[in-house]
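In the present case, backbone shapes were mapped to integers, as reproduced here:
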Amino acid sequence: MGCYDCCMKCLGGVPYCSLVATLLCFSGIALFCGCGHQALTEMERLIERYFARNLQDYSTLAYLIQYFQYVIYFLASFFFLYCIVLLAEGFYTTSATKQTFGEFRSTLCGRCLSSTFILITYLLVVVWLLVFAFSALPVYFFYNMDTTCHTITVLTEKNPASINQLCIDARQYGLLPWNALPGKACGMTLSTVCTTREFRLTYDLYIATFAGAGITLLALIHCCLQLAVRQVALKEERRQEKDQRKSYELYGRLQKDIGGTLRSPYAPHIISDSLPPDCPPPLPILHGNP
């Protein structure tokens, strides 16, 4: 076997769909976990500095932020292992099974493994839809802050007295309890908050986190569809294999009933190529019983 044939054989065994899904999942999870972790840290600093005066007012928020950061550590580890196993399963069903069992064969272990991955991936898609929706909430909060600050900038030149009525209340978004003071930022104070490094960095990080959640959701949907298509293909291969076996059994019964070998309208080498290895090729002449 030449170098070209060896390279083509190796490339033919690569599960490109699983590889694309794995790369998408890796990039989405890396973006979601990395940016989300840093965004939570910057948000804690922003709330502590501009929206709360007492430590007790944002202690619950600080506890929740620490809890979500531990969840991010778990998600990063889980999806890293899951993507590796998914890619290995793709290589197994694409390359090893074809080389060991033939082009149209599948093992019981492989079928059970594919069904298990379909179920797990479907559950992950449902859970990640909730994560995707949840990651949009801080983006909505900071978008409202940015829009309000832009309105304050415009009104400062036209009607400066009305800018104090424009506020962002962190208590309305559930970030602080209702007895927290001051709990909100209004007028020029809010405009000053929007020009700080913490606000811009946190806003950009939450946008990147939301994008990472969307990429991960796309990768999970791609995995689920790819596994479902592969399962359908395996069922079709098993059906074709059963049809071939039935035709071979019918051919054998006809041989026994006639007492000889059937003459085929096709060439002998075509019939012999289509028969399994343990079935002898048909003879071109029909020999009956004397």
Summary: Residues 197-258 form the longest helix (62 residues). Helices lie at 3-12, 16-50, 59-101, 108-158, 187-194, 197-258, 268-274. Strands lie at 167-169, 184-186.
